[in-house]
Predict the 3D structure of the following.
Amino acid sequence: MERKKFIKTCCYSILSFPFMASVFQSCGGIYYATASHGTNMLTVAKSEFLEIKKDKKTNRDFVLIKMENGEFPICLHKIKEDNYSASLLRCTHRGCELNVGGGIYSCPCHGSEFSISGKVLQGPADRDLLTFRTDSDNENIYIYFS
């Protein structure tokens, strides 16, 4: 192997360690919430964000919701108390399912990145994600499709 190619390969390997660590860490945080499907809306209990491990309670930053058609999930992200963002995890570039982690949505197919509010951060995608209006009360979060 040429010296230049060897150094380049080593540098890429070293630079990929933090990225891979965040990917593996985010895998443990994927949770599919139970949602009630109504006419033009979904209802998700706020308790779906509560995680109990070994008698320790923590709050999830986001939950995923499987859609009835089964194509792409919706990510319901808790921004702050009683403020939520809901986005369809379908890349607007070529329609790949997005990954969630590190406070962004990323496309494994072509590298597009989106904010948790669905805004394009990095292309090749040039359109924001499909997002849905949300509302909440003391017990539930409502995601509206119209």
In short: Confidence is low (pLDDT under 50) at residues 15-27. The CA atoms of residues 51 and 58 lie 5 Å apart. DSSP finds one helix and 13 strands in the chain. The chain has two domains: 1-28, 31-144.
